[in-house]
Amino acid sequence: MAKEKKRPKTERVCKAKNEGLYLQTVGESRSWLLRYRIGGREHWIGLGPYRHGKRIKGLSLDEAKKKARKLRADYIDKGIDPLAERRKEKAARLLAEARDLSFEVAAKQWFEQNKDNWTNAKVRKAVMSSLRRYAFPKIGSMSVRDIETGDVLRVLDPHWREHPETLDKVRLRIEQILSWATIRGFRAPGDNPARWKNNLAAALPARSKLVHVSSFKSLPYPEMPVFWQRLSERKGAAAAALRLVILTATRSGEVRGARWSEVNFDNKLWVIPGKGRSDAEDGVIDGTKTRDDYIIPLSDAALNVINDQPRANELIFVGPNGQLSENAVMMLLKKRMKVDAQQHGFRSTFNDWARDTTGFSDEVIRFCLGHGVGNDVEARYRRTRAIEKRRKLMAQWAAFVLSPPRAGEIVPIRAA
């Protein structure tokens, strides 16, 4: 049979009716207790340590009496249990402390819960990298409940004119983090201080009015046949990958990660899985931006590029250590061919050519670039229906790219 827990020694020190003041002794320690009854049940509540001798902190007898009488007047005489109220206050205080979340901690929790929304490994990395560089030094230690528009401006204003595109992404991420904090109860409902419309738009120049220093350098499309002639003379996986980038107007990472299993040779289609694929470079999952399978019609020229590659791996384009690296293609452009353009810039070249020289609609051109038009369901339906139109446009693009340069138009394409 378990022994009953022994109550500490208590000594009643006040004989007045209903006073209920006791002095408790536990070893060398002594403290004040108040004994009271609520709803026919007896309760005890601590009032604080006993002050005696050289002890500075604590309550004297008179102070203990005063505190006991106040508890009776404020709670006990009204039928309220002061101990229960104390517990409620403690719980509210702990909850308030738990909700006092810093922006940096909130950002990390928000990222962990949303990281699957970014299928591209580099974009995922850039999300937190941009916050660490621009936001955390200014507002990282601030509680999310205290952040106001002026604090967001402290993050954006010093760099907005120099890097408008990057800082607008930072602004959007701050807005999303603060919205997340509001929904989670860490921030009071109300206007989001990082909102652009009717808020920051009044304090910062529109991004469209600033110089876009981070734009990808592209090749003017009249120079494409000349460039293609030079590129055709290049051997190796990097040159072949760049040729497919140009002919399909896709992104470098999509081409470098292309698998043989994604190509339907009978129907001349390349299907990039929306949910992602294992990325041999860093072991993460990389997929399309829309998370839908992206179907690309292949011209005969594009199929020839693919068929010319050796089937030594599940990857179509293989580098020395597995998947072909982005640097390998950049080295080909910048160092070996001395071209002042970037891989991603060839998408702009295609876009300019299609809009300037063909009669295809904006919708078809955007679908060829993998951009959405309309809401998700509508865009998916229309993109699928537009495949044959896209096939015709990409065939015309391939014919232009492979066309012989006209006499007098062969100019050296050199880096500035």
Q: How would you describe this structure to a colleague?
A:
The protein has 416 residues and is an alpha+beta fold. The protein folds into three domains: 9-98, Integrase, DNA-binding domain (Double Stranded RNA Binding Domain); 103-209, Orthogonal Bundle (DNA polymerase, domain 1); 221-401, hpI Integrase, Chain A. The chain is built from 15 helices and eleven strands. The protein has helices at 61-74, 82-99, 103-114, 121-139, 149-156, 164-183, 224-232, 237-248, 252-256, 300-307, 326-336, 345-357, 362-368, 376-385, 387-401, and strands spanning 9-12, 21-26, 29-38, 41-49, 263-264, 269-272, 277-278, 285-286, 294-297, 318-319, 322-323. The strands form four sheets. Strands 1-2-3-4 form a four-stranded antiparallel sheet, with helices on one face. Helix 3 (103-114) runs antiparallel to helix 4 (121-139). The chain is elongated and about 110 Å long. The termini are far apart. Residues 211-215, 278-288 and 410-416 have low confidence and may be disordered.
Main attributes?
three-stranded antiparallel β-sheet, four-stranded antiparallel β-sheet, Double Stranded RNA Binding Domain, 11 strands, disordered C terminus, DNA polymerase, domain 1, alpha+beta, 3 domains, hpI Integrase, Chain A, 416 residues
What topology emerges from the helices and strands here?
Blueprint: E1 9-12, E2 21-26, E3 29-38, E4 41-49, H1 61-74, H2 82-99, H3 103-114, H4 121-139, H5 149-156, H6 164-183, H7 224-232, H8 237-248, H9 252-256, E5 263-264, E6 269-272, E7 277-278, E8 285-286, E9 294-297, H10 300-307, E10 318-319, E11 322-323, H11 326-336, H12 345-357, H13 362-368, H14 376-385, H15 387-401
Antiparallel strand pairs: 1-2, 2-3, 3-4, 5-6, 6-9, 7-8, 10-11
Helix pairs in contact: 3-4, 3-6, 4-5, 4-6, 8-10, 13-15
